[in-house]
Amino acid sequence: MPHRAPVARELAEVFKLIAHPDRIRLIEELRTGECDVNTLAQRLDLPPTRLSQHLSLLRAARMVAERRNGRQHLYSLAQPQIARWITDGLAFVEARAPASMAGDLREVRELWS
Questions:
Q1: At residue 46, what are phi and psi to the nearest 5 degrees?
Q2: 25 burial level (CB within 10 Å; 0-12, 13-18, 19+)
Q3: Phi and psi of 75, rounded to 5°?
Q4: pLDDT digits over 44-89, tens only?
Q5: CB neighbourhood size of 57 (10 A)
Q6: What are the phi and psi torsion angles at 47 (to 5°)?
Q7: Burial 38-51 (b: 16+ CB within 10 A, else e)
Q8: Between 64 and which of 34, 53, 58, 89 could a Cys-Cys bridge form, CB atoms 3.0 to 4.6 Å apart?
């Protein structure tokens, strides 16, 4: 019988890492391709320093890749399927969300599809 505990622990670490609203938005923003910190900060309305901290955590976990183009640092998803996980998770949110969130959920689904 396979030992599921180590795999479950590793998966829990992945979930723990993406279990932050800023990181979820960041992953979804990077699903369309690479981007630099300042552009990401502007699109997500986050301070560049805070965004850099999130990118650092995701890079350390090998979820985000960094490429340098001169002085510019460009970031992309190392495993783009992680963005699909998040989009698939919208169904769970929709199933338990109050009716007042229906418009927001529809808007997010359109944005992330």
A1: -125, 150
A2: buried
A3: -120, 145
A4: 999 999 999 999 999 999 999 999 999 999 999 999 999 999 999 9
A5: 15
A6: -65, 140
A7: eebbeebebeeeeb
A8: 58
